[in-house]
Design brief:
Elements lengths: L1 E4 L13 E6 L14 H5 L3 E9 L11 E5 L4 E5 L2 E7 L3 E4 L1
Parallel strand pairs: 1-5
Antiparallel strand pairs: 2-3, 2-6, 3-4, 4-7, 5-6
C-alpha cells in the first residue's frame, strides 16, 4: 500500500464515486489449535477486516459504521489529522457484516 501524507484539511473528508474510507481493524488471528499467527503471517492473508468511516457518493449497499472484509492487496493509506485512513474501491469489498 502507498502511504500519502494529506495536509491539514479545512473541510471534512468525503469520498466520491465508488470509493470508501475505512479504518483497518487490527485483530489477533488464532488457529484452530490455538497458535497465534505472527504479524508477517497476518499480512499475507488475502482479506482484512475494517470499519467503514465514510462511503462514497455512489456506494449503495455499504453504510458508515459497517464492518467489512476487503481485499488487502488493494487500497491506499493516507494520514488525515495524523491518523491512518485507508481508501478502497467498492469492488474490493467481499463481505459486509
Amino acid at each position: 500500500m502507498l502511504l500519502l501524507l494529506w495536509q491539514e484539511h479545512l473541510r471534512p473528508m468525503k469520498p466520491i464515486n465508488k470509493y470508501i474510507a475505512i479504518n483497518i481493524v487490527e485483530e489477533e488471528i488464532v488457529t484452530d489449535s490455538g497458535l497465534i499467527l505472527s504479524d508477517k503471517d497476518v499480512d499475507e492473508l488475502r482479506y482484512r477486516k475494517a470499519i467503514v468511516i465514510a462511503p462514497g457518493t455512489e456506494v449503495k449497499n455499504i453504510n458508515k459504521g459497517d464492518t467489512i472484509y476487503f481485499d488487502s492487496r488493494t487500497g491506499y493509506t493516507m494520514l488525515i489529522d495524523n491518523k491512518p485512513c485507508t481508501i478502497i474501491s467498492e469492488r474490493d469489498v467481499v463481505v459486509v457484516l
